[in-house]
């Protein structure tokens, strides 16, 4: 049994990670901003600073984790209202992560698993699935902040001896998902016609329980030390294929109109939604061969099983 601290433990991914670790016999501590929000499977420690200022001074004496899984972050939003978005992202995603790493190392932690994002590498795959060896080219402030956090943590790890593991997930989905994935299910549930029948762009996804399992392996396996990994489900569906599969599991067959991609992009440009339309019509796939070959990891759930579980949750709650 290992002692593992999970930051952002009350979030969509954090709750799943805590459950997975606890189920597998680990001593889990949940770091949250508000007490009573992590789901009850781990002992909580609440610390209200969004940028983790003062975390070293507030750190409980009895908390000596072997590893920290760092999920807490300022997340990507479609319409950011911050005056300086990059500065806001850096404050939490770079400086905050470094504060956690330093405090954990001072308390004896040997490893930190940093949950980054595919956006630290690229917004599109340009015809070849993204691999860890490819030079990163982030496209927005969020992605850049995640890449800068990776670089800062690599440097701190080299200086301090703290083992750093970077995980770059693509789109994460599952029960309790929000944002664009939830909007997509809402549209299917309402039987709205969607002009995406001709979109054959493929996207890597990862079911939240698969991601949680991968993070547990990254926290525990000695072979993961000082490595970067992509994770994904067993298939990269097309946008149209994903909608059809979700509609089948929801009992709401997708109503897809075969609008040419060129027209969709032109409409996006005219309505100020060019970036959103680009994400819908261009592929973003990742190559997960490194984690499979290095750690022998394979997601315990297939894409279809993950979509089915997500649809069951949606039907019950909506």
Automatic annotation (TrEMBL):
Superkingdom field: Bacteria
InterPro entries membership: Epimerase_deHydtase, Lipid_A_modif_metabolic_enz, NAD(P)-bd_dom_sf
Pfam families registered for this protein in UniProt: Epimerase
Database matches in Gene3D superfamilies: NAD(P)-binding Rossmann-like Domain
Domain NAD-dependent epimerase/dehydratase: 4-223
Protein name per UniProt: NAD-dependent epimerase/dehydratase family protein
């Amino acid at each position: 049994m290992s002692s593992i601290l999970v930051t952002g433990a009350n979030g969509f991914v954090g709750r799943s990670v805590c459950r997975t670790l606890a189920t597998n016999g680990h001593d889990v501590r949940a770091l949250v901003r508000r007490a009573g929000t992590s789901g009850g499977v781990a002992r909580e420690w609440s610390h209200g600073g969004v940028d983790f200022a003062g975390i070293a001074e507030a750190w409980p004496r009895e908390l000596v984790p072997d590893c920290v899984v760092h999920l807490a972050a300022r997340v990507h939003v479609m319409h950011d209202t911050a005056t300086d978005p990059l500065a806001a992202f850096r404050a939490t995603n770079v400086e905050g992560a470094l504060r956690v790493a330093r405090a954990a190392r001072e308390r004896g932690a040997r490893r930190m698993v940093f949950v980054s994002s595919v956006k630290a590498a690229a917004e599109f795959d340009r015809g070849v699935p993204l691999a860890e060896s490819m030079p990163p080219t982030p496209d927005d402030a969020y992605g850049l902040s995640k890449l800068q956090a990776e670089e800062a943590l690599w440097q701190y790890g080299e200086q301090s001896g703290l083992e750093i593991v970077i995980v770059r997930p693509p789109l994460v989905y599952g029960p309790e998902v929000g944002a664009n994935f939830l909007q997509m299910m809402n549209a299917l549930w309402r039987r709205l016609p969607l002009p995406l029948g001709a979109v054959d762009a493929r996207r890597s996804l990862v079911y939240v329980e698969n991601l949680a399992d991968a993070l547990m392996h990254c926290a525990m396996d000695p072979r993961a030390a000082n490595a970067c990994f992509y994770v994904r489900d067993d298939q990269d569906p097309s946008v149209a294929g994903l909608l059809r599969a979700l509609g089948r599991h929801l009992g709401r067959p997708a109503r897809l109109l075969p609008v040419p991609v060129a027209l969709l992009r032109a409409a996006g440009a005219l309505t100020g939604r060019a970036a959103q339309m680009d994400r819908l019509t261009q592929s973003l796939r990742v190559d997960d061969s490194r984690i499979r070959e290095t750690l022998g990891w394979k997601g315990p759930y297939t894409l279809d099983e993950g979509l089915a579980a997500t649809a069951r949750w949606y039907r019950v709650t909506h």
